[in-house]
Amino acid sequence: MVGSVAQLWRYPVKSMLGEQVAEADVTERGMLGDRRWAVLDEETGKIASAKTPRLWRALLSCRATAGPDGAVVLGPDGRALADDGLTELLGRPVTLADTPPPGASLDRSKPDQVLARGLDADVEADVVRFGSAAPEGTFFDFAPLHLITTSTLRSVAALSPRTAIEVERYRPNLVIETAEPGFPEHSWVGAELRIGDGLVLRVIASTPRCAIPTLAHGELPRDTYALRVLAEHNRVPALPGLNPEPCAGVYAQVVTPGRVRPGDHVATG
After folding, report:
1. Taking the domains of the chain in order of start, what are their residue ranges?
2. Rounded distance, CA 146 to CA 170, Å?
3. Taking every annotated instance into account, which residue ranges of this chain make up the domain MOSC (predicted)?
4. What is the CATH number of domain 3-268?
5. What is the pLDDT of residues 150-188, one digit of tens each?
6. How far is CA 58 from the centre of its chain?
7. Angstrom distances, CA of residue 154 to CA of 84, 159, 162, 178
8. Looking at residue 186, what is its pLDDT?
């Protein structure tokens, strides 16, 4: 036993605010309804992501839910937004897409440069291509599930001047209640997790953090310590051969699909 499921989250539109759910079906394509849609920049053909705050941080002022007829996007004032409303809000021509274009990619601004130069600075960026550890045709940056522990959240809060951190900043699918101090999920990399009655996940990598946790999320204000704490206290190699990066949480793939609910036991197997 390593803990139990504390919370479940999904984010129907990539880089928008998500929704907490009471239970969820999980398949090899991730949690049902998670990252099902994304905003496409019509000028560049790239996926819009708040990983580039200079252009796209306003995405985090929108809330998305998965409706029976598609994504429902609510703007900062609570009104429903279609493509023209998103274009006006973001200041660039965009459309809501349900399928990644061929060779889909996004820009990930260097987080250390964003911290040093500010949100509006034109900083260097890495190009992230979809599908390296996720099923084809999905909008996941790397893998279909992201997990974080309450131990990690408590550790970041204790090291922050605010003595608090909001789980929404790290955008996990599963929040795992754990008692072990520090950042225990990094030790799960390479292991399988058995959750509830049948769900089995394989943890494949620690999660390097971008600038997104530092940004305003809806009513949550900007908090640079959501990244600074990790940069100072939890730099680990996300993948073999890479330099250590600020990390929080882990990525996982689905070995055996299943249903997950808060309270489900989590064990390594």
Report:
1. 3-268
2. 9
3. 108-269
4. 2.40.33.20
5. 999 999 999 999 999 999 999 999 999 999 999 999 999
6. 16
7. 41, 9, 12, 10
8. 95
